[in-house]
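Can you give me the bound-state structure? Components:
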Amino acid sequence: MSEVYRGRAPNIEINKITREKIKFTLSGVDSSVANSLRRVMIAEVPTMAIDVVHIHTNTSSLHDEFIAHRLGLIPLISENQDNYDFPRDCKCTGHCEHCAVQFRLKVKNQEGGVLDVTSRDLRHLSQQGNDVRPADSDGPILILKLRKNQEIDITCNARKGIGKEHAKWSPVATAVFKYTPDIYLNQQRLESQFTAEERKEIVNSCPVGVYKLNEESNIEVVKLNKCMFCEECMRKGEMIITRSASALLNVHDNVVRVSQLKDRFIFKVESSGALKPESIVSKAFTILTKKLDDIKQLIPPLINTR
Amino acid sequence: MSQNSHQEQNLLIPAFLQLRGLVKQHIDSYDYFLTTDIKQIVSSPSNCCVLSDYNPDFYLKYKDIRVLMPSIEEDAVISSITPHECRLRDLTYAAPIEVDIEYIKGNKIICRSGLEIGMMPIMLGCCNCVLRNKSEEELAKMLECPYDPRGYFIIKGVEKVILIQEQASKNRIIVEIDSKNNVVAQVTSSTHEKKSRTVVQSKGSKIYMKHNTLSEDIPIAIVFKALGVQADQEIFQLVGTQKQYIDALGMSLQECSILNILTEKQALRFIGSKIKNSKAAKTGRTKIEEARDVLATVVLSHVPCENYDFRAKIRYLGIMVRKVIDAMNDPKKVDDRDYYGNKRLELAGQLVGLLFEDLFKRFNSDIKKHVDKIFSKPKSSKGEPFDVITAMNKKMITEGLNNAISTGNWSLKRFKMERAGVTEVLSRLSYMSALGMMTRINSQFEKTRKISGPRSLQGSQFGMICPSDTPEGESCGLVKTLALTTHITIDQPEEQISKLAFSLGVEDASLFSGDELYSPGVFRVFLNGQPLGVHRDADFLINSLREIRRKGKISEFVSVVKVEEEQQIHIACDGGRLTRPFIIIEKCKSKVEPKHIKELTLGLRNFDDFVNEGLVEYLDVNEENNAVIAMRHENISEDTTHLEIDPFTILGCVAGLIPYPHHNQSPRNTYQCAMGKQALGIIGYNQFLRVDTVLYLLAYSQTPMVRTKTIEIVNYDKLPAGHNASVAVMSYSGYDIEDAIILNKASSERGFGRSLIVKRQNSDLRRYNNGLSDRLVMPPVIHGDNPPPSIKKFHALDKGGIVAVGSIVQTGDVLVNKETPVNKVDDIEMSKLTDNDFKPSFTCFKGPNPTQVNRLFIACNPEEPFLIKTVTIETRPPELGDKFSSRHGQKGVVGLIVQQEDMPFNEQGWCPDMIMNPHGFPSRMTVGKLIELVAGKSGVFQGKFKYGTAFAGDKVIDCGEILVKNGFNYTGKDVLMCGTSGELVGAYIFSGPLYYQKLKHMVADKMHARAIGPKTALTRQPTEGRAREGGLRLGEMERDCLIGYGAASLIQERLMYSSDVFIASVCESCGNLGYEQWCQFCKSRLNIVKVKMPYACKLLFQELQAMNIRPKLNLSSS
Ligand code: SF4
Ligand SMILES: [Zn+2]
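Here's the bound-state model for the whole set.
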């Protein structure tokens, strides 16, 4: 198998970028590379998230820990997270402007009715750190609701962390890849041994509509990338062959065959809102290379000791 | 069309429950008690007045009684209370009982109205409860949850339920075969005054009557003679003149002549000589008089007998004898004891009624005693004339009721009845457990007897009792649950019914000779088991009665049953029968038409309208036997008389949670019924306002994707207990053997399976008899970062000595810094008190994890002047070993928590919250779970809830189609990729949403280990159990292993050195135990040696010595 890849250059081809999503095709690499990229995106791209919460007043109907948990899960825009240190790396004790951004949430419902407290009510405590703020492009995020005269007063620190530690630091909602489908149609047999009706059956068997019948009522692959390897079409083909009871035919020689191209991966990454999708990918690559670099650092002593 | 109208008619069930509610039976029965029964009790001739033996002029007469709205008297101010206030302040939710009386004071008649004689506990939701008929908003103002089932009591802040008690029916003849193969016809007579059991049984070929008051069995002919039946001919007529009766009675009649008893007097004398504890000598009555009295009042006491007119009793006895003879000839005529038509369910109203009557009688007899005492003394002319009100002890009734309900011990003096376990604390583990408890039926049957009869499912339970919801183990089948639409009747007055029966042509039985009663074609009519008369046209009577019932002229719960084989018609209007509603079918057409349903949905009609217009009627278990009931529209045939409203109503509310239960193996549904009650969830809208000892709650509880009709009807969708987990059914890592599940770490961090544990700790400042009371003290000041633990434990306290709200406490931290006076008895001058007169007695927090103090309550009630309740909330994400279960009796513990990136994923970004091993399926056969997954998955893509209602629900075919339409595999399988390697998983993975419940068993509450710790005082061995920080036992089997292995030193180390090693002084010369180098026996210290032995061994020797056995120790050195 590995022969296939030899001498082939890895390539990335971006299919689509929106505010929250990126789709790209990574080719010329093995599944291990693709998967490490995916894993790093989920678990090791750092972001900022609220981590330490001080509750001064809370007369709301939710209890303190519940609110703290909700605050933690609010995605904070972390494009500039490089400017911050991990709390464990920072020289300060407690927190400082290098490792934390402080917010204050102070709301009281004085009007009556029900007041929604949302991520928009989170205010920075100081000028510094304005680049880290709750993601807001899909509207405010509800934290809790207050009834008349209920009040909440909280200060909280956003700190840098990674998804491995807690899911709130994971920058992605989804980060997945799939193999590129490879569909082989034995057109010759399809034409000779199948009726038009049966070909239509095969086309209809696909739940995602990969196939279409063309003018000559032959099967054509139209949406290859939609294929999810469910093999419904293969099973249908087999079924039709067995049904027609042509015992002479070799059943195992499928007329339709779906397989995966093992060196082309279609990635789909959706951001949680903390980072732009493309920066998640590029940061993931940086981290991946840094990991390799760190290993490389160990090589010279190894060689020297030989 | 039939499908459609069928779909619609089950709208009747919510309508039914809206009107009746799941606990309507409790509330109805209590309403009946408060409005009717209590008045009857007080106005009954034996209770309504108190007379004096010494003063013939004196009387006290009760004219009326009523129960007011709940209130409390504090500092002489009477204010109304709400149930929630009672819960918070540990009060009793009770209302004053007021009577109107007329009595003699001096020589004047005095009328007094509105005199309080005690407090009556009020059932929540009953007619005297403040919550009755309140809107959701009004309930919210009273801090009450609108979905709370109610129907329980609050005694001293504790919610108590009076469970439904199942009993054999009273006042009915039941024929059985006893262990000696004799036919036994017995009847338990029960009236307000008396309870007794009369038995007519065969012994060989003779027939006897047996009764508790009689020391011997009386030949039946003698009983007849004693009751005034002179001629043998007459006896034959009463029983039956056919050959088999004459043959069977022959021997019994002979006995009369053998004993030479021919006249009524002789017979009475004979019976009189057999009476146990005869009082004849004392009262100066003759044996004959006494025997007549027993026959009139004790034997068959429920059959009316005035002025020694025994005719009704004679006829009743005749019927009993006839039944015995019938059963002797034909074993098929024996009754089935477990048949539900012969069962009655006792509810709170009846039980409290019995208790109240007993207490009221005692109350009156106390008054009488007091009055007699006063009047027996010579009258002093001076001073105020005696006022009987001063003799009334209000506390007696109040405390009697409160005690019985809070302990569950029902002791009724007049029936000599002692019953334990009548009430239970309402379980608030989850909403379902509370509901389940309210619909639970407790059987009086002994649990220890290993008899399958009463435990097995009886055909007559169909539709009345849930076939799934029963516990496993010893009480299996004895504790049952009501089905969804079951209603339990309450007592109805008989007079109206009997009058009606007579005007419909029933001829009074007393006008007939026995012979005519049994002629063919004549039906004997019974009302509540009492013979009423005969009727020659049975169908006419039955049809007219049913017609009148459908017209609403008599109660809808009256049942009319024709028993063809016995030529009997039974009319019943007594309480405790099980009934449920059916749609009436006439001429193959349902009387409920689509237009009616439409009116129902528009709110123009309620369920009662259906009943009143004769579209729907209630049938009890017996009347069901006369009906031909179609299950569905399609099944209607010419004979059909009724139609089920919907088949799923055969299940109860707890079993109703299961989606597709009809696809599961039945024990699985039973397991789920037990587990559904342990699932953490939302308990009520007021859950954070409650102060229960422990509340287990689930954060972000979700309504299930796949619902059932029952779920919506019982409001489980609003108070759910579980999460819709994305489940992949696959093998992963090997940490999933034996039903263990794999959890996604990211999911749990985002809130999946996160539970809240709300705990309450009480601490009260008591006041002592010497005027001193407990006090709160300021905590010591904490200096520095690292104070010693003895000081650090005060860290959470406020200046006032009570813990600060919002602080985090750990095990051992002080919550209330209380001090108690050392001397609680003697009078001490306040000014001389010093700190040394108080010793600390603080309340500490106990719990596995650091926990936040959420609230503080400071309250007072009549018993406790200063009550401090501390409420802490602990948030607990799922951890290894926590127990989860689906709704199909499939429980498992968390075996591994996996990082999200290691979890398998599909190409669309889906990633499971949970992985379940497929080995859970084949042996459990929970096909319902498979269908739930497919249905849930299709619902997700459709954006709709799916229904898995029993015997209906969305079809798998349709769900599969929806999946295909949305680009998924028809069978719910997906192509997944491995999270660790990125390769395709080599199989299609069955995956989708399943509703998972987190059960209350959590590792944090159970985890336990100890190195050193406390010892018990007596044996000096380590304590036992987690609560006492006990050691882990090296039991017999473990010991056997070590012996087998030959590890002698290890055994010695485990069993002695690490346990209760003791160095005893033993005297070598006499072999006795000594003490501190001194042998008391030899009075010397010369031969004392030290011997190591377990303390328990030393204790044994001493205990033996105490029993005058001398264990002698012969010592030798090896
Ligand atoms: S494998 Fe499934 S998705 Fe792919 S083409 Fe065949 S039927 Fe369509
Ligand atoms: Zn001695």
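A couple of observations. Chain A has eight helices and twelve strands. Chain A touches chain B through 42 residues (CB under 8 Å).
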